[in-house]
Write a structure and sequence with these properties.
The complex is a heterodimer of chains A (111) and B (119). With 111 residues, chain A is mainly beta. Chain A has no helices and 11 strands. The radius of gyration of chain A is 13 Å and the shape is globular. Classes of the chains: A mainly beta (111), B mainly beta (119).
């Protein structure tokens, strides 16, 4: 089983729609979770951290289910500029460990 | 936010040559930097953890003699791909943690990446 698994997509959705991505992770001891955004041929950039209680940042909502080892990202009122690859990222342990990345879900917002 | 600069952005070299990639934290000190590699349509894979003043820690399957890492100062880590071959062609990205907040929870910032093409 892959450490961090995501549906690669692509997800083609019309502008203004709501879209949700899911991610599962295999290491139950994982301590912190993130969603990163990566544009084509660019470096990943942090979109938001994911907290156990769930958290929201504008149009973006992230949720974590530790029991099911499942993370989600919801984007409301999608914009053309939201087109990118969204990476589910897990820190398998505390301290200075490198992060484990999913392959990413490719999102295309259509006008 | 914190800035991590990577150089060069693009490099094309002949098979058998060595290529050095630099990663600098511009406005913070990074005792630990990470080097990742990303092949097309694949996830970022951690290659090694670079520790200032000590030897790097390599992930399983990464040849330490082929991918030389030097972290001589708190703001600079270098990755040298020695005797590069076409299969080493990839997108190499470094990252550093800014150290804010609790240990290990500071945001990870990425360099712009270096795209290596070996002919």
């Amino acid at each position: 089983r892959k450490e961090v698994e995501q549906d690669p997509g692509p997800f083609n959705v019309p502008e203004g729609a709501t879209v949700a991505f899911n991610c599962t992770y295999s290491n139950s001891a994982s301590q912190s979770f993130f969603w990163y955004r990566q544009d084509c041929r660019k470096e990943p950039k942090l979109l938001m951290s994911v907290y156990s209680s769930g958290n929201e940042d504008g149009r973006f909502t992230a949720q974590l289910n530790r029991a099911s080892q499942y993370i989600s990202l919801l984007i409301r009122d999608s914009k053309l500029s939201d087109s990118a690859t969204y990476l589910c990222v897990v820190n398998p342990g505390g301290g200075a460990d490198g992060l484990t990345f999913g392959k990413g879900t490719h999102l295309i917002i259509q006008p | 936010g914190a800035v991590v600069s990577q150089h060069p952005s693009w490099v094309i070299c002949k098979s058998g040559t060595s290529v050095k990639i630099e990663c600098r934290s511009l406005d913070f000190q990074a005792t630990t930097m990470f080097w990742y590699r990303q092949f097309p349509k694949q996830s970022l894979m951690l290659m090694a953890t670079s520790n200032e003043g000590s030897k790097a820690t390599y992930e399983q399957g990464v040849e330490k003699d082929k991918f030389l890492i030097n972290h001589a100062s708190l703001t600079l880590s270098t990755l040298t791909v020695t005797s590069a071959h076409p299969e080493d062609s990839s997108f190499y990205i470094c990252s550093a943690r800014d150290g804010k907040g609790l240990a290990g929870t500071g945001e990870l910032f990425f360099g712009e990446g270096s795209r290596l093409t070996v002919l």
